[in-house]
Every structure is written in structure tokens, then in C-alpha cells.
Amino acid sequence: MKFKFIWVGKTRDKNWKALQEEYLGRLSHFVKCEIAEVKDAVGPNAVDIEGNGILAHANQSSFVTLLDVKGRHLSSHELAAEIEGWQNRGIREIAFVIGGAKGVSSKVAERADLAVSLSFLTFTHETARVVVLEQLYRVFTIIKGFPYQK
Fold first, then answer.
1. Where do runs of H (alpha helix) occur along 45-104?
2. 2-149 has which fold?
3. Number of neighbouring beta carbons within 10 Å of residue 7
4. CB atoms within 10 A of CB 112
5. 149: pLDDT strictly greater than 80
6. What is the residue extent of each domain of the chain?
7. Residue 148: what pLDDT?
8. Taking the complete model, does pTM exceed 0.70, yes or no?
């Protein structure tokens, strides 16, 4: 199984970047990981431009999980059960999408196989990236029975 993270913009703050790399390193012990950064767009068509960039990075066979405030609210254990189910179904690549500041285009939302909310709270994109990486690492510690999740 491979995780592909597709997000808009770069992680510019060195502290968030360090946390991102820390959890990406931990996660890579369990699953292959790749990050695809889509350039921030400006102007009235920014969401559509970013959406086209996101879709260009999502393979046709990828299971696309959109991280969206309107998505399903899952506990860490529920997310672990979802991912374990994807493994059992033989899904090879899961793409996790974090859109830009103005959200994602309708094309990206339609392409998503699942929408998941990280929280009822609003996070910066840099925070959201770290949270999703940490939660996915936590998921694998749950699946493997490691003590980290407690």
C-alpha cells in the first residue's frame, strides 16, 4: 500500500516542516509515502486551477480521501478500521487531499471516494498536514498494537 499526500502550497515554516518530516518518517515504516505539492493559485479561478493540479496528481486507480470540514468525523480507531479494510480489499494507493485556502473544486469533491473531517475546528494548512500525518501514524500503531496510541 502507498499513501500519496496531495496538498496545495508548500510548508514554509521550518517548525511545521520539521514536524511534517518527523511524522512522515515514522509513517514510512508502515507504508510507502509520497507528497505532491500543488502550486497556490490566485484570481477568480484559483479553486479550479488548484483542482486541476490536484487531479493531475491523483492516479485513476487511487482511492481518494478528501480532508474536508464537511466530511465524516472518525475517531482514530474508526480510521484504523477503515484503513485496515482498504488493506484487506487490496487497495494499492490512497491519495489524501488537502485543498487550498478557498477549498477544492467541485471536480475534486466529486472525484473523492471518501471525505473525512479532521476536526470541527479550523486549522492552518500547515497544521492540518501535521495532524493528518500524525493520525495516520497513530492508525498504524493501533493496527499493529503498539502502545503509542494510548
1. 46-57, 76-88
2. Alpha/beta knot (3.40.1280)
3. 24
4. 19
5. no
6. 2-149
7. 77
8. yes
